[in-house]
Amino acid sequence: MFSDWDKVWPLNYNRKLSLAEVDEEKLNIVVLEDYKKQKWSEKKIVISLEFMRKYPYMRNTYHFQIDDNWLYILGHDRQHLLGYDITAEMLEIIHSVPSGKELSYVLYPSLVHLQGNEE
Predict the structure, then answer these.
(1) Is residue 38 part of a domain?
(2) Residue 52 in contact with residue 29, Cβ under 8 Å?
(3) Is residue 102 included in any domain, yes or no?
């Protein structure tokens, strides 16, 4: 499914639990289609992240969320919330905070166990 499980993290993909990894300038996503049957999508969703060529430091930014056609990214400095229009392939700053402040990113831990992802 993924080449390196150490680089995989959970992702909210259109309000569905997903697993994702960044590989070069691509975001690879597998979506949990049916949690009761623990059925994952058969094909990976691949989203081009060409902007990473211009901003290579963003490869270390793993706070992503996808809603409709937008990829939301918490900037590596935690001072910017970026939006990436997947269709238009345009990156823009959605929100910034003053120097010395940080945007909050809340991650709610879960005790969910998903079968089939053991090594």
Answers:
(1) yes
(2) no
(3) no
| pLDDT (tens digit per residue) in 39-97 | 999 999 999 988 888 877 777 665 678 888 898 887 767 777 888 999 999 988 888 88
**Cα separation, 84 vs 70, whole angstroms:** 6
pTM above 0.85, yes or no: no
Nearest to 17 by CA among 4, 28, 32: 32
Counting other chains too, the contacts that 67-75 makes at CB distance below 8 Å and 24 or more residues apart are 67/12, 67/14, 67/15, 68/14, 71/27, 71/47, 74/103, 74/105, 75/103
Looking at residue 113, the DSSP 8-state letter turns out to be -
Helix (H) or strand (E) holding 71: strand 70-74
**Total count of domains within the chain:** 1
